[in-house]
């Protein structure tokens, strides 16, 4: 069977390999309802058994787990939680329906919260809802929920309630794959604390995940039925991760400096403000890439106010450090219904990135307005993806100028942020001096696939799509030298920057700024600390390069 | 407690990173429950007031970091109740910094 790759968000770093077990979701079984008095008694009994179970779990749990279970117990013991259910029962509803509806209502309240940390608490309510329902329905359904989990399993689920996670024995390893989930959920915190690798937001039905899996929860990648070469590369990454993790964690807060004293800026890539909830800006030199596609993932296009609030939150989080926000990079492997072209024979060579934004100025202008307004709150910078010719940069700049002028004329506070470009199309890298951009950021994933003519999404050519191909490194060197000559910052925001094996070659090519996934930050800084650029230059010269 | 007496009122700034939820909410309600007085909490000085002894209701308030929490208590030990709650909030719920603080 050919290997299949899925990407999600890293929620707890680490690596695991093994068979995937998909957790069955609780069966929807209706119990036969009795009269209101009997139903109320049944719910009361189910709640009190659930509370006793939680108390027993908490008694044997570590502090963090006991705190989470204690929170659930406190909610369960609060009459305010069950009052709507008992009211519904008095009006003739069966106990299970009444309880489910009451909890769903409460859960909806949590899910509507603006703050990600509050939203993440919805999982605790779901946990409570299921625990009491299992008691109410009892017997067979309860048994179905409790699928036995073999030691060391890779557990796949939609979301995983904390108590369910705690009931699994993780001492022999394993990992968690969630199609939904959040890195701010209680279960993600438990997983980090216990060193259980976890990927969230995979976006695929857990029942479709089966077979042998490689989980790289540091990079957020899942490979099913891996080819032997993929497995070998995975094992190498796993080893270097294990060696580096302990040493790296202790130095994560310090600035990155090579062994011979060259400072390197390390920024983070984020796909949304939610990822920042548990991070401090002190650990990095700013945000080198904000992927704004997440804003366009829901129903319809995001309005200016929605975008403004998100950009402002990101900018304020950074507390004065630069925040580089990439304008919508749809198309290619990131289609957006109703926006990107349908039926392109090769979407990676089609209307994507800035090409799409310039083709749809009415949508682009909304994003630019939101960015110009948010720029009043910190060091926001705009970055254009997929720029191929200087005219695209100039067209975007003209639109930004018009946008800022219109905002100011209307009395809306706005600032014109610096505008830079991604360097990912070979035509831009080779003629970089033609682009009058405030800064350059090398998108090594796309640059590599375009230079090597090897698709990112085609496993059979994955070995060819190597960012350390000398042709790719030569282009990176050209861009870095141009940046140094004209005093414009050159950074790199592709996956290569977060690959400890690649960092040395990137710094040797002249880069002094990298932007990596938050989970890769510590390992990247540690890798930088191991590099002696002076010695590297000497040995490169010796090879007659 | 009687409804005619003047309630004790005070406020405190919520400074812990993750706001008033989960473990802080449990601590706050447990403390409130240790007093006989009715104790209520609000985000605005004129309400709406919610029962500070109910973790479910406290969670519904969704108070984020930087919010000024208002407390109102009536009853024999109202003074002590408000004082203790303000102190708990001012101490940051005795949470440690770092991720440990948002464990629950």
Structure commentary:
The complex is a heterodimer of chains A (about 550) and B (about 100). Chain A is of the alpha/beta class. Chain A contains 20 helices and 17 strands. Chain A folds into three domains: about 5-25 and about 145-225, Glucose Oxidase, domain 1 (3-Layer(bba) Sandwich), CATH 3.50.30.10; about 35-140, Orthogonal Bundle (Enzyme I, Chain A, domain 2), CATH 1.10.274.10; about 230-540, TIM Barrel. The two termini of chain A are about 40 Å apart. The relative contact order of chain A is 0.10. Chain B is an alpha+beta fold. Chain B has a single domain (about 10-95), classed as HPr-like (Histidine-containing Protein, Chain: A, 2-Layer Sandwich). Helix content of chain B is about 30%, strand content about 20%. Chain B is built from three helices and four strands. Chain B is globular. Chain B starts with 7 loop residues before the first strand and ends in a 14-residue tail after the last helix. Chains A and B meet through helix 2, helix 3, helix 4 and helix 9 of A and helix 1 and helix 2 of B.
List keywords for this structure.
heterodimer, A: 545 residues, alpha/beta, Glucose Oxidase, domain 1, Enzyme I, Chain A, domain 2, nine-stranded mixed β-sheet, eight-stranded mixed β-sheet, 20 helices, 46% helix, globular, B: 104 residues, alpha+beta, Histidine-containing Protein, Chain: A, 3 helices, 19% strand, disordered C terminus
